[in-house]
Amino acid sequence: MGGSDQWGNIVAGIDLIRRLRSAKAHGLVFPLVTTAAGVKFGKTEAGAVWLDPKLTSPYRFYQFWLNTDDRDALTYLKFFTWLSKAEIEALAESIRTEPEQRKAQRELARHVTALVHGETELEKALRASEVLFGKEISGLSVQEILEIFADVPSTELERSKLDGFTLGDALVVAGLVPSKGEAKRLVQSGGVSVNNLRADDVRKAISASEFIDGQVLVLRKGAKHYHLIRIAG
């Protein structure tokens, strides 16, 4: 039993059984799940997704389905969810009329993540996803923060350097601004957030208590430019 790409191997196995055992064997193949571009789901493919949470975390699993191409979303909803025909047709209409809302992808990601990892892990994945859109970070662990911001630039800072360390220093160290003067202007314009909370004082002391679990600080410039400062060691 296997995907249709294994047909040749299965036929060869059946023939070997016939020759060695003089016995009848049967093979079963099923169509491969592919994207609209013809790329198959498989462990050797780039960005492969796994059911094992140790290989693909529930958050990454959720994001995988959320980023599904419009051309594939409806097919996967039919394959991997228990949604009714009417519900899927309504989502198809949303793709045609308001594709920017990505309702089909959201439903797909929710249903498949809950099916594989359970409702509790789905809620964690949803909570983590909200952080990327400026929602409050409190309540998340360092591990969750590092996973959410895995592709975000980071800077390590020695704990000993926190004495007298200010928000202006943090912005310069992170490379988000070239100088403390620019840091002041940016903060005054409302363009800086610390752990997704708007900052209003460039002279604010950044102590160890500001770091999540004493380890990670999340800086944001504008709406999308994130940078992590991590305590070394």
Q: Approximately what portion of the residues adopt beta-strand conformation?
A: 5-15%
* Percent in helix: 40-55%
Going by CATH, the homologous superfamily of the domain at 152-231 would be: RNA-binding S4 domain
Net shape? elongated
Strand and helix order: EHEHHHHHHEHHEEEE
Main sheet attributes: strand count, strand direction, barrel closure:
5 strands, mixed
End-to-end Cα distance: 49 Å
Question: How many strand segments?
Answer: 7
* CATH topology value of the domain at 152-231: Structural Genomics Hypothetical 15.5 Kd Protein In mrcA-pckA Intergenic Region, Chain A
CATH architecture descriptor name of the domain at 152-231: Roll
Structural class, by secondary structure, is alpha/beta
Please compute the radius of gyration using only Cα atoms: 24 Å
Number of helices: 9
Instruction: Give the averaged pLDDT, no decimals.
Output: 91
Q: CATH class of the domain at 152-231, anyone?
A: Alpha Beta
Low-confidence stretches: none
Placed side by side, the strands forming the largest sheet appear as: 3-7-6-4-5
